[in-house]
Structure formats: structure tokens, C-alpha cells
Design goal:
Blueprint: H1 7-24, H2 27-45, H3 51-75, H4 77-80, H5 90-93, H6 98-119, H7 122-143, H8 150-170, H9 175-198, H10 200-205, H11 211-214, H12 217-242, H13 246-269, H14 272-299
Amino acid sequence: MSTPAVALPGHLTMMSRLGAYVALTKPRIIELLLITTLPTMILAQGGMPPVWLMIATLLGGTLAAGGANAINMFVDRDIDKLMHRTRKRPLVTGVIAPRNALIFAVSLEVLAFVELWAWVNLLSAVLAVSATLFYVFIYTLWLKRTSKQNIVIGGAAGAMPVLVGWAAVTDSLAWAPLVLFAIIFMWTPPHFWALAFKYKDDYEAASVPMMPVVATFRRTAIEILVYTVIMVGLTFVLAPVAHLGTLYVVTAAVLGVGFIALAIRLWVQATPKASMQLFSYSITYLTLLFVVMAVDVFIT
């Protein structure tokens, strides 16, 4: 009788490790960043940019964001093991050694810079890596564990992809991408704090001073409403600055009313269910706003 084959378990182990490295990059967050990049490129071009440029920019953005997220996991591995929602991350379970994770993350950043510089332009490469540096040193290493304004200021890193997308097309910056940056900057606190309501106990256990941990539910809800109103106002500022038409303005109004209504309901009801509904809507809101912005470019 022949000896049973043993290749399959090894193959599964290799695939598990590959999946763990992919998990280090936080793919779901990258998806949201790319959703804002491509429509911004269309807006900058005034139409459809060259396919090669879109692919090169999205690839570079993916590498840069993935590297930043992996460094974040490397730094936060001590508190990730204390929180229920993060305790299965690769560095907590030991699937990947911290040193290997850091090498992987830095390699992604180097690749991102080289790829963007070679195939897009130097400005987009500098902006992409600058976002990583801000995310790692300002948010992760400094603000996250020391200030209730951590996600407010740290949100600038998540708003950088629109600047990268605009720079990729024009090799410059202008008022339109700066307004887009401001929209996402103001969108981030309502989006993240709504989720933080659900995981308040996690953050408290890890001594991370997220707003829902250090302030009352209603106080946080008021802050969410204030940021939401400012964000919606900025979406209307974008219309004349970026020369967008009726489709965008009407959509921004409808989506904005929905966002404000859910923020008000959260303030009135102050329940975890209301916060998660707002969180889910915030993702839909940003996606639809940017998709319609891109569509408006072709019909205006």
C-alpha cells in the first residue's frame, strides 16, 4: 500500500498564511479608499482617464494603504489582543511573526512609492506615502492612545486618496480636491464614532480614548450631528468649485438629508441599533455620492 499524500495540508497552510498577509492590509478599508479615488480621477480628467493610468493609480493606492494598515496592526498588536473584534488578527493569533509583518508592510510602502513614481508621477507617490506616515506616526503612535480627538485628526490620512487621484491625472492640486478632502475629513468622525458605540467596551478595555468611551452617548451623538451638518454643507460647496450639475446637487441633497436624519435619530434614541444603522448608511452615502459625482461629469 502506498503512503498517503501529504501535499494537501501543506497547501492549506500556505494558503492560510497568504490569507493572513492579505488580512494585514485590511482589504475592506482599502475598498472604501479606492471608491473615492477613481471618481476623483474622472472629475479631474473631465471624463474617463486612460485605463493604464487608472490601473497604475489604484494599484499604487492599494499598496500604500495596505502597507499603512499592516504597520497599524504591527503597532497595535498589544491592544488588539484585548479587544473582541480584533483578537483574531494575524499578529494576535501568531500566524505571522511581528518582524515578518513589519518587513511586509515596509516593502508594500516602498513598492507603492516606486510604482506611483514610475507609472504615474512623483506628486501622487509623495502624497500616498505621506498619508501612510501621517496614519502611522500621528494617528497610530500618538493620537489613538492619548486623545479623544484621535479619529478626527487621524481622519486626514483616510482623506488623502482624493488628493492622490487628482494629482495622478493633473500632476497638481486645486480647490476641488481640497473640498473633497474636507468632505471625507468631516465624514470620518460620524462614520467611525457610530461604529465605536458598538465596540465601546473593547476600546475601554484597551484604554483607547475613543469619543464614546470618554464622553456620554448623547454628547457623542451631538458631535456626530455637528460634523454631519458641516460635511453635508461641504458637499454643496463642491458643486460650483468642481462645476458639477443638477444630478450631483439633487443627489447630495437627498443623501445629506438622510444622513442628518439618522444622526438626529441617534441623538434622540441613543441606542446601539441606531448607531449601527448610521454606520451602515455612512458607507452607502460616501459610495453613492462619489459614484454620482463621476456620472455627473459625463452628463454635465
